[in-house]
Please model this.
Amino acid sequence: MRAVAVSSIAATIVALVVLVLVGPRFGGAVIAGAVAMQAGNLAAILVALRGGFLPARAAFARLVLGTFGKWLLVSAVLAVALAVLKLPALPVLAGLLVTALAYLLALGLWNGRLQDKGTRRLC
Model:
């Protein structure tokens, strides 16, 4: 859940910069893209991590179902933002990308996976 908070902060900063430099329509489009990814991430977390200890097949099924639900929700929110609200596409995709990258980086940094821990070479 901390990664969701970090990606929300990153998206808010980018949206504020776009709002100041370009205008409110584009800032709102960045927020729409960020909301799409955040809603998808939260849906995936709630589906995949609910239920306690499970057998491997059930845990994997929840993970796959959560990922599928995430991208289905992201697609639905993007469709509404682009087709119904007629928001500009590039800022919407920028908000989506910033949120996704910040989420992945936050997951890796908190778990220590992005640090080089002296990998051994075979040659």
About this structure: The radius of gyration is 17 Å. The mean pLDDT is 88.
